[in-house]
Amino acid sequence: MTNAQPGAAQNQLYDLHRSFGALILGIAAMRLLWRLFAPPPPALEGLPRWQELAARGTHYALYVLLFAVPLMGWAGTSAFGAPIFVFGLFELPPILSQNRDLAMVLLTTHKLLAFTLCAVLALHIAAALHHHFIRKDATLRRMLPRLGKR
Ligand code: HEM
Ligand code: HEM
Hints:
two-stranded antiparallel sheet; single chain
């Protein structure tokens, strides 16, 4: 997206990026709301304490980043002065007034946070696979509504 030639195609990529980012922000908010009413089950018994704490810390970091990354993108785009059309359906209002220098700082932070999200996510997926294939416990299976109960 950032390396494309300036023009209609690049604008389309920016529009899609911002639309999917806004969608992720909405889904993250719904998930967090849902979690208040349906808290996750406790960690499986027999898990070393440090692994339980590592899992809790990773999940916490994922939630923080799921909000911080798109909000930073929204703030940076507002400061840049560009409109945010979500899939051409509606426009997100700016949350900051125009300031190009600030926009550069916010969008660089946005990018760094997004790469941090990728790193934490890689750890998260590796841990889930470790549970399933090496510890062979029910952590991954119990994410499924029915199969997890077996
Ligand atoms: C979870 C959602 C999001 C992720 C994972 C994400 C990820 C990224 C990444 C990795 C970059 C760096 C691209 C590069 O320089 O190579 C980037 C750039 C950018 N993002 Fe996001 N983004 C998200 C949501 C948003 C949202 C919601 C907006 C605005 C409403 C947004 C606006 C931008 C803009 C304008 C840039 C380009 C900055 C520039 O031109 O240097 N992003 N994003
Ligand atoms: C291959 C992909 C993935 C696998 C296999 C996976 C696996 C899992 C498993 C097994 C759990 C439950 C852990 C437990 O019961 O203690 C979990 C929880 C969680 N996952 Fe993933 N996950 C994946 C992708 C993602 C992605 C893309 C995100 C978000 C960016 C994410 C965010 C979370 C969060 C926040 C929790 C904690 C839920 C809560 O406690 O409310 N996961 N994941």
